[in-house]
Amino acid sequence: MRDTRLHLDQPLAAGGVPALDAAATHYLKAVLRARPGHRLRVFNARDGEWRARLTRLERHDGTIELEERLRPPVAEPGPTLLFAPIKKPRLDWLLEKATELGVARLQPVRCRHGVVEGSRPERLEQRIIEAVEQSERLSVPALLPEVELLAAVEAAVDGVVLADEAGGAAPLPTLAAHPAAALLVGPEGGFAPEERAALRRMANVFPVGLGPTILRAETAALMLLACHRARATETARATETAS
Ligand code: SAM
């Protein structure tokens, strides 16, 4: 069984006795049925990862004692994903898998054919944190408030690689040419013709095709993220070999 690994959004330092938040308390008490003495790892992007021991667990709160730092904080660079919200449970799946694949920012965008039914941001953030804990990341990707599609694209200073079901360039060379670009995937109903036309007129938009079949929005997002990760991994390996 995996050991317990919890994200704690508060300072973690030698000798510290951090208090557990409500979600961590509930998880330890109700899910794991943990007792004082239970060993765990806690982490955040600012302070890295620490070995810890549960010292007190009440109904609504608890405390832990930090023993030693296991990993220092480290930069976890990743792309921004612009996506049109889809219905749950597929939205949950998208957020979980995007987090595993290293996304840094999740930017929902409003499209003509998008879903209007909203999910509570706190629920979605909890899903993201669970994926961070499971995947051994230190940083939690930011889930940003929804913005208008074209406003989000205009604001992307390093450009946007657009997954276009109407076709485009090959993804890997495009991502190699624009490594800091955001990634954009359209809504379940596809881009409206005027949205596609506007996107294709913009100088900072680089359309790519993802093959001959039509992918669901979440599959297209994961394929783009996987391509991004494959390219970034290759670049990192080449840099290591050269040094
Ligand atoms: N309803 C649209 C249709 O039938 O043409 C399909 C939309 S698709 C479910 C949702 C999004 O996934 C698209 O807007 C696009 O961003 C992406 N996508 C799906 N298949 C793709 C492909 N083969 N190449 C590039 N992008 C694709």
As a percent range, the share of strand residues is 15-25%
Q: Using only CA atoms, what is the Rg?
A: 20 Å
Q: What's the helix-strand series? A: EHEEEEHEHEEHEHEHEH
Mean pLDDT: 94
**What's the CATH class label of the largest domain?**
Alpha Beta
CATH 2nd-level architecture of the largest domain: 3-Layer(aba) Sandwich
Shape: globular
Give a structural overview.
The longest helix has 26 residues, at 217-242. The mean pLDDT is 94. The protein has helices at 22-31, 90-100, 121-135, 149-154, 171-177, 193-201, 217-242; strands at 4-7, 39-44, 48-57, 62-71, 80-83, 105-110, 142-143, 147-148, 160-163, 182-185, 205-208. The strands form two sheets. Strands 5, 6, 7, 8, 9, 10 and 11 form a seven-stranded parallel sheet that branches. Helix 1 links the parallel strand 1 and strand 2. It is an alpha/beta fold and 243 residues long. The protein has two domains: 4-71, Hypothetical PUA domain-like, domain 1 (Ribosomal Protein L25, Chain P), CATH 2.40.240; 80-242, 3-Layer(aba) Sandwich (Alpha/beta knot). S-adenosylmethionine (SAM) binds at residues 163-165, 185-186, 188-191, 209-211, 214-217, 220.
What's the helix and strand layout?
Blueprint: E1 4-7, H1 22-31, E2 39-44, E3 48-57, E4 62-71, E5 80-83, H2 90-100, E6 105-110, H3 121-135, E7 142-143, E8 147-148, H4 149-154, E9 160-163, H5 171-177, E10 182-185, H6 193-201, E11 205-208, H7 217-242
Parallel strand pairs: 1-2, 5-6, 5-10, 6-7, 6-8, 9-10, 9-11
Antiparallel strand pairs: 2-3, 3-4
Helix pairs in contact: 2-3, 2-7, 5-7
